[in-house]
Amino acid sequence: MKNFIFDLIINEAWKYQFLTYPNPAVGAAVIVNNRLFVGVHKKAGEPHAEVNALWNAFRAFNNAPELERSHDIHEFLLQNHNGFFNDANVYVTLEPCAHSGKTPSCANLLKHLKPKSVTIGWPDPIIGHGGGGEILKNAGIKVNILENKRCYDLIEPFVKWQKRFVFYKLALTMNGSITGGYISSDESLNWVHKIRDKIDLLVIGGNTVRIDRPTLDARRVGGRAPDVLIYSKNDGIDRNIPLFNVPKRKVFVEDSLDKINNYNFIMIEGGERLYNEIKNLVDWKVFIISPKFANRFNFRSEDEFEILHTMSGDDLIVFGR
User: How confident is the prediction for the chain on average, in pLDDT?
Assistant: First the structure.
């Protein structure tokens, strides 16, 4: 049962990977009255995964108002739980937070709700953030910490973007073609635009800019456009290309990648040449594989790849390192 629950909440949390920046992607579940309720963290500033799971469970059995703000949900549960969770078992991929920031402490909430047990997939690795497990233990709650590698994989970007996290995004067909205009589906393009709305810097090769003349914004989701670093040994780039005319962004044209050291969350988009040149700087690779074949030049690289997670939709999205 425990393995099933963690498979479920890990998979749900991956749906929001990168989109929670600067927070981690986290999944949680609550079993109460023989029913299972799942919650995930969707966006920084919004309720954490365990709060969503607790709230879903409470509302299934009790009259409660429509609340969305984390502070409001915390306060309502603290005032109205009446021991509802005392026989509940809670599961969460990351140790409940001990500190209060944009949202109140989840560990403090659980301390007062007093579930029977809390099973944690991975302890909080950030200095100053840990201690949630101790708060729960001191409240008499049974705490299990699994150190599940899949739970660490889920938060690795969060751990690294405290300093710098770089991932490479590449769209290709089933037979490895990366040329010929848009390859991925509208669904995947929308997902990429959601990510562009979150990243600090987008890196792209000079040839791609010259040929495709892109905008590289987040217009599909009404999001903000990240700063752009055009990596090119030779400039010769037309400043009338749309990406130069997007408000509130910086665009750099440079022959080095030193600029990435000034940013925390970086996405690189490009082709085979750029990938093979900079792949050793990359923490993760994300491949969007379109279910079609193309009679065009195929992507080639001598590279090893550890698959961390896959998501299926109109395309297959593969996360790895």
Answer: 94
Nearest to residue 136, comparing CAs of 150, 123, 153?
A: 123
Q: Binning pLDDT at 50, 70 and 90, where does residue 216 land?
A: very high
Task: Confirm if 105 and 129 have CB atoms less than 8 A apart.
Answer: no
Report pLDDT for 102: 83
The CA-CA-CA angle for residues 261, 100, 129, to 5°, reads: 55
Which of 30-34, 104-108, 124-128, 162-166 shows the lowest per-residue confidence on average (mean pLDDT)?
124-128
d(CA 41, CA 45): 9
Asked if the model's pLDDT at residue 180 lies above 90, the reply is no
What are the chain's domains?
A: 2-159 (3.40.140.10), 163-320 (3.40.430.10)
- Residues 6+ away with beta carbon under 8 Å from 234: 206, 255
DSSP assignment of 9-48, as one string? HHHHHHTTTTTTTTSPP-EEEEEETTEEEEEE--STTSPP
Between strands 89-92 and 117-120, the pairing is: parallel
Query: How far apart, in whole angstroms, are the C-alpha atoms of residue 302 and residue 66?
Result: 53
306 is catalytic: no
| Residue matched to tokens 């927070």 | 23
Among candidate residues 12, 50, 95, 269, the one labeled active-site is: 50
